Structure formats: C-alpha cells, structure tokens
Amino acid sequence: xxxxxxxxxxGIALGAGLYEARxxxxxxxxxxxxxxxxxxxxxxxxxFVTTGPLTLLTLANLIAAWQSDGPARTWWVAAAxxxxxxxxxxxxxxxxxxxxxQRWSTGGDxxxxxxxARWVSLNYVRNALTLLAWIAALKALST
Length: 143
Hints:
The protein is mainly α and 143 residues long.
C-alpha cells in the first residue's frame, strides 16, 4: 500500500513539476519582480497535495523499503533515497529561495534575474530526480 501511494504521489509531483516548468515559471520570469508576486502561484497545491504528503510518504517508504527483503527492495530503496534527496533540496533550497525571490525589492533587478535563472535551471534537476524516483518506484511496484 505504501509503495502504491508513493508511486501515485511521485507521479502527481512529476506532472505538477512539469506543468510548473512549462506554464507557471515562464509567467514568473516574464517581468520580475512584479511577475513573482502573483496572488496564487500554487502554494496550496504544493503544500497540501505534494510537499507534505510526498515527504511523509518518502520517509515511510524509506523505512519500509529498508526493512523489506524481497526482490523489489533495491528499486524501492533507490526510489526512496532519490526522493529523499529531492525532498531535501526542496526544503533546503527551492522553497526558501522562491520565498526570497517573491519578496525581492525592485532595487536589485540584476541580482534577482540571476537568482531566478539559477532557480529555474536547478528546477530541471529537481524534476529529473522526481522522474528517477518515480521510475524506480514503478520498477519496485512491478517486481
């Protein structure tokens, strides 16, 4: 059950991340800092649908995978570890940086644009990690 939920939530996070990268991020980068101050840029979705539940599922799956001894163990542990790295990056860099970017004053646009460009570039890596975790979890589920 835990692994099935993990696969579902990783898939949701991947789809949402790809949507954000293709639709929302271009809006954010269109005219910063004003474009970053949109009233709702998905905070509720990320917090309640992916960030909280996926983090809890990652931890629960890491524990369950570590304690398992079946043929799926290697893939399951790999999925949980990759997801844990992605979760650590999300809480350690992506969330705090986006909060800072959204509060940026108009005085330093050059620094803002560089910081935003770095966030956008690293977000591709984060989406790739989610994809890798999802593929590993699917392999574990199918094993």
